[in-house]
Amino acid sequence: MTKSLSTRIFIGLFSGLILGSIVQYFLADVGFFSGTLVEVASGLGTMFVNMIMMMVVPLVFVSIVCGVLELDDLKSFGRLGGKTFGFYIINTLVAIFAALTVALLLKPGLGVDMTGGTGAEITATELPNLMQLIVNIVPSNPVAAFTSGNMLQVIFMALLVGGVIKSMNGAVPLLQQGFTEGNKLMMKLISVVMQLAPIGVFALMFKLGATLEASLFLSVVEYLVVILSLLLLWIFVVYPWAVSLFTPVSAKTFRAKTQEQILFSLSTASSNATIPVTMRTLTEKLGVKRAVAGFGVPLGATMNMGGVSIYITVAIFFVANSFGAPIAMEQLPALLFSIFLLSVGAGGVPGGGMVMIGVLIHQMGLPVEAFVIVAALDRLIDMVLTSCNVVGDAAVLTIVDATENAHEEEDQTLAETGPSEASLS
Question: Which terminus of the chain has a lower count of CB atoms within 10 Å, N or C?
Fold first, then answer.
């Protein structure tokens, strides 16, 4: 118990995976281990994730309202929102084009025969309509938005409430104090639940090790290597390098500070479930202001999907090549736009990327059997791409915070010296 939380999560993750694998390969014939024990682990893991998810919606709402209230003025809110949104879009586009370049060069799936697969049902069959996505941001029923966990709608309501309270210039001090105290309560609840993280992570990884068959992905190891290599490159090289380039935080420090976040997201495979950990990482370890983290983390869990972008891009090229229907150059513009919309609409829940790949498979006229191998490998890939997504959130918001600090220093200099003296200096 004297070890750090990151270390205990690390121990839970790998010990669960190892013990689960032992059950699958050596104790599969023993009903207690392969049946009862796996079922108990599955139940404990689900309870832990549910406990985290239980706090996500109130945490997002309260933290965004508090974040807006902590800003100096509403003008700075507009600047912060524009910067965060813009950086998230740029991050997603860069990930898509990098994955596209790799897919065009390596041509994953060539020589792989997937025509002998069995069918699987794809539940989503239409590309998202951009205008409809925008229209749906405004909820017609706020209660339904909370109960369904619609993050974009919750974010919209929180921004509206925070902005209105801020515009009242302290006319409702008790309401402001209530949100502040509520935010303290949510932070304490997160700390309490996170103490259970090593047990929850152990249970989740035990089930994974006991049920995920190695034979399913050995035949398409190239596909796995391409995706996982790109995701790991983004997590440990690209994002830390970007942070070191634009902020005072070194790449080594950034990697160390996001360790707990990476391990937690690996086990839950959910950006939404990792929101509390991402908040802690930014505010307590990287020193990002609560206003920046409170606004940016929920938004990032919804739309900053660099990992999903890489996954969808490489996967659709793999599927097309392995079924002898390679993507032509003239198809690329429409395909890339679709991938961008699908990445943003994937949602921060386990399996979101897999569903979006199913959409593309249907839209491109590829056999439904192509979905089988994607679904079989999804859990393994989903773990790593979620880590890529949440580390991307941390990287972008650390950079946004640094630009906000620079802007505040510039404003302070102007206030102290006057515009004419500042310009002369």
Answer: N
Angle at the Cα of 141 (from 139 to 142), degrees rounded to 5? 80
DSSP helix/strand/coil, 310: helix
User: Exposed, middle or buried, 26 (CB in 10 Å: 0-12/13-18/19+)?
Assistant: exposed
CB atoms within 10 A of CB 212: 17
Distance (Å, whole) CA 231 – CA 415: 45
- Please, is 269 exposed, middle or buried when counting C-beta atoms within 10 Å of its C-beta (0-12, 13-18, 19+)? buried
Q: Which long-range contacts (CB under 8 A, 24 or more apart) does 140-147 make?
A: 146/57, 146/61
Statement: residue 86 has pLDDT above 70: yes
Q: Which two tokens stand for residue 152?
A: 């974009």
* pLDDT digits 0-9 by tens, 376-421: 677 778 889 889 999 999 999 999 999 888 766 666 665 666 555 5
Beta carbons of 356 and 411 less than 8 angstroms apart: no
CA distances from 235 to 62, 256, 258 (A): 29, 12, 10
Other Cβ atoms closer than 10 A to 90: 11
Torsion of CA 108, 114, 118, 122, to 10 degrees: 30
What pTM was estimated for this model as a whole? Answer: 0.72
Q: Which tokens in the block code for residue 257? A: 């500070």
Calpha distance 196→207 (Å, rounded): 17
Q: Check: CB of residue 51 under 8 Å from CB of residue 238.
A: no
88 alpha-carbon distance from chain centroid: 12
Do residues 352 and 311 touch, judged by C-beta distance below 8 A? no
The tokens for 138 are 């405004």
CA–CA distance, 46 with 268 (Å, rounded to integer): 9
Q: How far apart are CA 26 and CA 28, in angstroms?
A: 6
C-alpha 400/C-alpha 30 separation (Å) is 54
DSSP state of 330: G
Please provide the average confidence, as pLDDT, over all residues in the chain: 80
Residue 108, CB-side half-sphere exposure with 13 Å CA sphere: 24
Strands (E), 150-209: none
Distance CA 224, CA 379 (A): 12
